[in-house]
Specification:
Layout lengths: L21 E4 L3 H12 L4 E4 L11 E6 L2 E6 L10 H11 L3 E5 L2 E5 L2 E4 L4 H29 L7 H26 L9 H6 L5 H9 L5 E4 L3 E5 L4 H13 L3 E3 L3 E8 L2 E9 L2 E6 L2 E4 L3 H6 L1 E2 L4 H9 L2 E11 L9 E4 L8 E3 L15 E9 L10 H15 L8 E14 L6 H12 L4 E3 L1 H5 L5 H15 L18 E4 L10
Parallel strand pairs: 1-2, 1-14, 2-10, 6-17, 11-15, 14-21
Antiparallel strand pairs: 3-4, 5-9, 6-7, 8-22, 11-12, 12-13, 16-19, 16-20, 17-18, 18-19
Helix pairs in contact: 1-7, 1-13, 3-4, 9-11
Length: 502
């Protein structure tokens, strides 16, 4: 690396030997990763972003006050991954700004705390011996019943009951899941559960506690990497590298039409403050919402593809960002709030991730997340209403703060944050992907672009592999986040040392 920017000495105009231009739609971490990798390979690349900033949902917002500067991530994005190549990339980009953070995440459950991800011994202790006995017994009955008469796992409820039994499902999964998705669990697909908690169950948790599995289990959740001044710095530093290496990032440039001819995309109509223009390219990478991409084709996509796009929905989030004259609210990096009478779903305390996120040790802040959909009660609330609602919950329901500790607050609306896996989503999604797969020079990446609930590292991995495909390799992006083990653990052969902190 040179000058701490992770550019490996690459700068200036891309080499003329490989002059095919790649156009990247969207300047979130995934799209920027594609452009960064291509820039390092001296490939001409242009990134188009509708917003006036890079980072998308993973950006960091700064708010200057008379007390000093507060920094807020939208929802918080820690860095952990099983992929060593991605870890190296993250270290390269973040460089001297890299911090290691100890993670403490808990569930706030009826005034009590339970470790998250769920640790069975801790959870059973929290619910008491009688309920614990019932939880273990009904899980046993579920396993026996399912062994005698296998059942099809279709809904989110089916999947959680199969993995943890009816009692733990109702106590620890149903409340929060229905708050997140705004629908009963029996209307949501079980795919989300299998994707987020692969291989986890009451049985495996107990077994691993009593008889550890072969191979050392390296937890990716006890500590994580994080940029000192907020996760948005990862995107900002990639953007700096892209432009320093001679490529272009155009902010305030929204994609209006994707022009196609045969099995190729020929160019894009984009809108700027100056009007519309046509952008040509040889290869295209899209991280804009898949549902939008399908509906802005020119000529238009087949009617059944457009209809399929209209059937898929996203869930929105609103963050309420509070600035507080208080040293600390909780020790948690995240606190998941299961109580139904509290409207928000979780919050994180940026200071617990990096002291640089607040002006000094006398202050702290909170990023409080509300899950909502267009037009519903929460989405229609004003900024003043949401800030006041949040403060009241924190004071009256949780006892975490006092009114005089609140300096100020503001909200950020983030539409289409989470793809909703409503039962039946697979068929329309398959139709759209089959159509998009027909283009030899178009790849889709990221959570938006693939309509897949990926973690940050998975989204960035799709960006990395899309770039590698353009550079001549052959990777199936659908295989990202398709392994069978829980995404926050990694088994390594013995002997194993501690995770490298290179």
């Amino acid at each position: 690396m040179e000058n701490g920017h992770g550019l490996d000495g690459l700068s200036g105009t891309p080499a003329t030997g490989a002059n095919k231009t790649t156009v990247v739609m969207g300047a979130g971490p995934g799209g920027l990763c594609s452009a960064y990798v291509l820039s390092k390979a001296h490939r001409p690349t242009m990134v188009l972003e509708k917003a006036p900033f890079v980072g998308g949902l993973a950006r960091t917002i700064k708010r200057q006050t008379e007390h000093g500067e507060f920094k807020f991530d939208i929802g918080g994005h820690r860095w952990f991954t099983k992929n060593d190549e991605l870890n190296d990339l993250f270290r390269e980009v973040v460089a001297e700004e890299l911090l290691w953070v100890n993670r403490i995440s808990r569930i706030y459950f009826d005034g009590r705390y339970v470790d998250y991800p769920l640790k069975i011994s801790n959870a059973l202790k929290a619910i008491g011996p009688i309920t614990s006995a019932r939880a273990v017994a009904d899980y046993g009955r579920t396993r026996v019943t399912h062994r005698i008469k296998p059942v099809k796992i279709e809904s989110m409820e089916d999947a959680y009951v199969d993995q943890f039994g009816p009692t733990l499902y109702k106590l620890f999964f149903q409340r929060y899941s229905e708050k997140v998705w705004g629908l009963p669990c029996d209307q949501m697909s079980g795919d989300w559960v299998s994707q987020r908690s692969k291989g986890m169950s009451l049985m495996t948790a107990v077994k691993d506690a009593v008889i550890p599995s072969k191979g050392k289990v390296v937890s990716l959740i006890d500590e994580f990497m994080y940029p000192r001044d907020g996760f948005g710095r990862f995107s900002e530093r990639m953007a700096d590298g892209i432009t320093q290496m001679g490529n272009q990032i155009r902010l305030g440039t929204g994609v209006e039409k994707v022009h196609r001819e045969g099995n190729r995309v020929t160019g894009l109509t984009v809108s700027t403050d100056a009007g519309t223009e046509f952008v040509e390219g040889d290869n295209f990478i899209s991280s804009i919402p898949l549902t939008v991409l399908a509906q802005i084709m020119e000529p238009a996509a087949p009617a059944e593809v457009i209809e399929a796009a209209k059937k898929l929905t996203f869930r929105n989030i609103i963050t309420v960002n509070l600035m507080l004259k208080k040293r600390q609210v909780t020790p948690d990096t995240w606190l998941y709030v299961h109580d139904r009478n509290i409207l928000f779903g979780r919050f994180h305390e940026p200071k617990n991730w990096s002291p640089a996120m607040v002006p000094s040790d006398e202050y702290t802040s909170l990023v409080v997340e509300y899950f909502c959909s267009f037009g519903d009660h929460i989405w229609n609330m004003t900024e003043e209403q949401l800030v006041e609602q949040t403060v009241k919950h924190l004071i009256d329901d949780m006892g975490f703060i006092t009114r005089d500790e609140v300096i100020d607050g503001f909200i950020i609306r983030a539409p289409r944050a989470y793809p909703s896996y409503v039962i039946g989503y697979e068929e329309p999604l398959a139709k759209i992907k089959a159509f998009i797969d027909g283009f030899e020079n178009l790849q889709i990446i990221g959570r938006y672009g693939t309509f897949r609930y990926n973690n940050t590292d998975h989204s960035i991995e799709t960006g990395l592999l899309a770039a590698k495909n353009i550079l001549g390799e052959h990777h199936d992006l659908d295989q990202v986040n398709a392994d069978k083990e829980y995404h926050e653990i990694k088994r390594v052969a013995e002997p194993a040392g501690t995770p490298s902190r290179r």
